[in-house]
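re: the backbone from monday

yeah here it is again, tokenized this time
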């Protein structure tokens, strides 16, 4: 096991909920969000399952910081086409669950959705994405809607969008650079499970000491090995299915392409022969010959533009034939 360190997603399920290990997760969150964060408590979440037989492909947790903000942290190993929708659902559900019935709307919590994904989610060149709500003028995009003076006093924000949830997507498999920043050091750990000796990002020195496999009790160590084997087997099954599906799709596409190519080739050959016959006609009979050829090509179902190119007739003349 690389560097003898526990994978971050497994640590989220078992170790990082321990108050003595808060420093590791606090370091990650502080580095990502660019502010000094302290965990107040872990909150219950229906998807927080520790049994690998229930759900070994993902892990998530709901954290409350000392400002009362909620942070949803999720790790997903398997490809999900509707993952963006689940991000939205998770945030919406969290907001609705943590406001009491009858409370004013100003009690709605600020939520950060932090998603660590080990598959290609969407298309893009970067490996970290941040999304938030911004209200811009329809006629002047530079005009950003801000809170009123009174609202800023109450809600402590500059823009109306500051009240809304924010999303982070970390596509760790797309990280292929040398870690030069504290955040890169964390991304490298999330991807490889290794922490360089020179890494100094907040929380990583503690992770290097506290997330060692050999420090686990024997029962926990066996559970960890079993979960890692389950993940490896699951990835193998998914990869095998992907390759088999790709091969089958290529075979079908090749056969269909050959059939379509033959049909198109036959039509093109006929068109070329008719066009050649036109070129060999006398100057005086070219127009009539062109119309005759065009009519035959039209009966063959060839596009008018193609007929026009071959016969030099106008599309209107061809349409009227």
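seq for it, each position gets an aa:
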């Amino acid at each position: 096991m690389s560097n003898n360190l526990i994978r971050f997603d497994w640590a989220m399920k078992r170790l990082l909920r321990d108050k003595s290990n808060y420093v590791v997760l606090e370091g990650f969150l502080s580095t990502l969000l660019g502010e000094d964060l302290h965990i107040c408590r872990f909150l219950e979440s229906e998807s927080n399952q520790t049994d690998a037989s229930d759900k070994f492909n993902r892990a998530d947790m709901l954290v409350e910081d000392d400002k009362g903000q909620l942070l949803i942290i999720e790790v997903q190993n398997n490809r999900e086409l509707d993952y963006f929708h689940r991000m939205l659902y998770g945030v919406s559900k969290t907001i609705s669950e943590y406001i009491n019935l009858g409370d004013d709307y100003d009690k709605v919590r600020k939520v950060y959705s932090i998603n660590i994904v080990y598959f290609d989610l969407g298309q893009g060149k970067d490996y970290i994405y941040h999304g938030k709500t911004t209200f811009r003028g329809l006629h002047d995009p530079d005009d950003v809607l801000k809170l009123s003076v009174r609202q800023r006093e109450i809600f402590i924000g500059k823009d109306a969008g500051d009240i809304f949830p924010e999303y982070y997507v970390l596509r760790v498999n797309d990280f292929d650079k040398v870690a030069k920043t504290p955040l890169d050091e964390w991304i490298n750990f999330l991807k490889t499970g290794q922490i360089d000796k020179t890494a100094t990002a907040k929380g990583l020195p503690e992770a290097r000491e506290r997330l060692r496999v050999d420090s686990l009790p024997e029962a926990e160590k066996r559970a960890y090995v079993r979960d890692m084997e389950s993940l490896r087997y699951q990835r193998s099954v998914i990869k095998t299915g992907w390759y088999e599906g790709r091969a089958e799709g290529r075979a079908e596409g090749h056969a269909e392409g050959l059939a379509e190519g033959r049909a198109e080739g036959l039509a093109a050959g006929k068109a070329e022969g008719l066009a050649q016959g036109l070129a060999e006609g006398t100057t005086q009979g070219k127009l009539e010959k062109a119309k005759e050829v065009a009519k035959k090509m039209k009966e063959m179902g060839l596009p008018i533009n193609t007929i026009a190119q071959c016969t030099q007739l106008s599309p209107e003349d061809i349409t009227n034939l």
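Residues 241-319 form one domain. Residues 48-56 have pLDDT under 50 and may be disordered.
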